[in-house]
Amino acid sequence: MKKNLLAFYLSLICGSALPLMAHATAFNAQADVSVAPAISHDTLQKLPWKPVVPPASESFKITEANPQVSQGDIQGQVAAFTLPADRGSLEITLSSLVNDRSVFAPSVLVLDEQMRPAAFYPSSYFPYERAGVMSGDRLEGTMKLTPALGQKQIYVLVYTTRQDLAATTQLLDPAKAYAMGVGNAVPDIPDPIARHSSTGELNLKVRSEQNMGSVMIGLPLTNSSAPAPVVVGSTVPAPAAPVAAPAPAAPAEPMLNDTEAYFNKGIKQAVKAGDIDKALKLMNEAEKLGSTTARETFIGSVKGKG
To answer: Which of 207, 216, 208 is nearest to 287 (CA)?
Structure first.
């Protein structure tokens, strides 16, 4: 039975008539750091970076007591975190809560271990989410990052900008939300407006691949709006997930050797453990990032188990 299952997976990989996996189109994160704000290395080094070890769910406030950065478009208080870079891919959900019709409009700059910009998420990446049963009105977005091998930590800087401080966010009136929820006629009343502030209350949730079983973070299997992963510490950002094809298109630039070795090792370990589904996901993710050996590694590992 086990050999038949392995043979079935090999037929999917080797056969040109069957697609490997079908993926929904991924939401493109703003990974172009050329448009990110410039912050001096000296300023970054002086910030009090708070370590966050996944899995973690933390609430924190940005107050007048927080460190301030006023360079370029950045204006006011910031929050600074470090995350481990040796736990596989990271999924980070940042929520900024609306309180008394005021909200902190976050932007996020991700830096590699050398404090070089690696990914940039402007405030538009954190859209308004209306209140639910267990959550209030908020601005919220999820970032998916894959730290390149050889790093111990990466940096996440949360800040707001001069432009955002001059803007506002339109909320949904609670009466309208209730009417929508129960199927009643939506009342014709104006929606409240939340002003943007240099202070606020935020929630940070971080999960790593190690905390998520066999799920490879960054593979949008069911949610078409899920963001694609960004490689932190590499000059090659992860592309949007393509529609499945018998053979992936060759990337513009090859995968870094360390990154390729990272994925190949994971594929071998997954096959050895009998988790063929995880090995398939790792292979597909590696090929999206430019690997030329992941498929060969998978086939060889599966044949070795047979």
So the answer is: 216
